[in-house]
Amino acid sequence: MNKLKILTKGFIKENPVLVLVLGTCPTLAVSTQASNAIGMGLAATVVLLCSNIAISALRKVIPDKVRIPCYIVLIAGFVTIVQMLIKAFAPELDEQLGIYLPLIVVNCIILGRAEMFANKNTVLDSALDGIGMGIGFTLALFVMATIREILGSGTWLGMEIPVLIDNNISIMTLAPGGFFVFGCLIALVNKISKGKAIRKDDFSCRGCPSAAACGKLKSAEGGEGSEA
Amino acid sequence: MEELMHFDFKGLVIILMSAVFVNNYVLQRFLGICPFLGVSKKLDQATGMSIAVIFVMLLATAVTWPIQYYLLDPNDLGYMQTIVFILVIAALVQLVEIVLKKYVPSLHAALGVYLPLITTNCAVLGVTILNITENYDFAASMINSLGSGLGFFLAMVLFSGVRSRMEGGDTPEAFKGLPITLVAASIVSISFFGFAGVIEHLFS
């Protein structure tokens, strides 16, 4: 695979949020405002880039059996660094993101990329993959936050939008709006790609770090493959 | 002793009720969405997963709260919170699995498959961190964890019912699978708005 392809596949073709359906929790939670979405996206991108580089560099050192705990420690370290940086230089963002900032640790995108990509590929490739996936995550968050902010509060990046500001649908910024917009966006991706993007039998399983445990669950229940 | 015996009963009930209904972890705070979407298809799986989550949440809070206040804070290591908590949770889940396997095999057979999924469940890490940021004392933290777990249970069970009804429905092609599940989750989430006033008028 050439380098450019590794970088760009995360933008649309394998978008971590809309196609691989990973990291749903932060996507739903921080997409109420476009500015929050960019902040969260960048924070996750930095963590993803660092963790991908570190894990790829250490892939021959980390024993296979304890790799997941090792990855979690590495990722938690980078998250703490990003957390401290944001607290120091952008305290407002820290307040807005709140609990979801430390929760980047358990964001499936990061552990998922470590499992799927970084532990099999070179450092450069992993770094490109990290940047690409991070940008894809940020893009998806930004699109979702744009829809929710414009409809929900009638503003965009803090700018007021003439007619909508007086006719805002406030439920869009609340929890139900998040689920609804996310569902519609995935349906749109489905429609455009004619159902090829998300194969129904394994949504979110390809990149999910707990796929093995989940598979056990399904086989215990009679081997039914479909999840959604 | 007198002081110890005096619990703020009203406060605890309010924390419990708001954790279950108003600030429901799945439907209002968006924590633990992956198991909510992945394991809610069948009622027995949804129940098993939720019981495992409640169990691990309570255990994790019982361990992380003292760690934060007796180990991290006195030594000025508050910034280590994220790393320490996730490690404790991961170790705890492993330990629970080993103990259950050895001493309570029947329970292990029922819950064992769900336990590995819980390590990376953001609801568990979320509840332990929120207990600290909300400045709850130990009793309140435990009640909050119990409430959060019960809220997760309630959402999972309700939603598995909704999904079993949805299976026979005639869904548009593009919405099949995940999208319609999310739209259904949105409607279930709206229904929880009905609880908003309950807490305010609980004791008035």
In N-to-C order, the SSE pattern of chain A is HHHHHHHEEHH
> End-to-end distance of chain A, in Å?
31 Å
Low-pLDDT stretches of chain B: 1-5
Low-confidence stretches of chain A: 200-204, 221-228
- As a percent range, the share of helical residues of chain B equals over 70%
Structural class of chain A: mainly alpha
Number of helices of chain A: 9
Oligomerization category of the chains in this entry: heterodimer
Task: Characterize the biggest β-sheet of chain B.
Answer: none
Overall shape of chain A: globular
Radius of gyration of chain A in whole Å, from Cα? 18 Å
Widest sheet: strand ordering of chain A = 1-2
- Helix tally of chain B? 11
The overall pLDDT of chain B, averaged over residues, is 84
Number of strands of chain A: 2
Largest interface: A-B, 58 and 53 residues
Number of domains of chain A: 1
Distance between the termini of chain B: 30 Å
The profile of the biggest β sheet of chain A is:
2 strands, antiparallel
Summed up, what is this model?
The complex is a heterodimer of chains A (228) and B (204). Chain A is mainly α. Chain A has helices spanning 3-8, 24-30, 34-57, 67-89, 91-97, 108-118, 123-153, 175-192, 211-220; strands at 155-156, 159-160.
